[in-house]
Structure prediction request, 282 residues.
Amino acid sequence: MIQLELKKIRTDGGTQTREKLNQDTVQAYAEHMREGDVFPPIIVYHDGSDYWLASGFHRYFAAKSNASLTIGTEVRVGTLKEAKMFSYKANEGNKRGLSMTDADNRQIIIKMLQDPDLKEWSNKQIADWVGVSKMTVGRVKNGLEEKEDKPKDTKYVDKHGNTTTMDTTNIGKKKDKPKAIDNKDELIVNLTEQVGELSDTIVLQSKENDLLRDKIAIGQWDASDIEKIDAEETIAALREQIRLLEIENKSMREGRDMYQNRNAELMKTVKSLQIKLRKLEG
Prediction:
């Protein structure tokens, strides 16, 4: 770790992946810094010319608000692109800082989906990198696609000065027939996969929650008071996420079970009709 001058650190490279910085956290960090608390170093990537901030924005701006000239820094050799990739790995890179919110994770996923080099990654690859479920990535991707498909309005002004708005989205396009899943087995498989993904997410978040709680409980975590406060906030957020995921998982399991039962009843009906048909033909 070195003491790097704040003025040498660049924050304008798109490596700030949160939806927005928490100003209360910035002020809390600044106060603790003034009281002498030592924080983990921020992480920057040096490309030979510029130092790009990749992790520790709250600490950086807290030090800046205190009019500090330097800040403890871990310098890594790498490009701006590598700094961005590190910042995208949010849930791994911020274990000892303020927890990422769902909105933060969504913004990271959007950035990756819009990156020319990353948009071809599979949902699983993006999910593994960010530290979320494949289902979360799928939802964000579907949301972006729906947004792109929204009607595009074009305004026209006639000779009398009247303005008319025309929807030009479907000009020159053939209307697609709505897709429906007729195959009940396919629907059951899809529901089963979604239930599995939710279950995996619940297990991962439960493990992270238990780990943080245990570290605080046994007093063996070498962290400052502010880091422990952040950890407690993370535990509370994870507990709420787990509760919501368990509700969603239960609902999806019930839906899957309902379709399985209906499918089984239909199969029985088909077999019964086949038997009657054979008797009639005989």
Residues 171-179 have pLDDT under 50 and may be disordered.
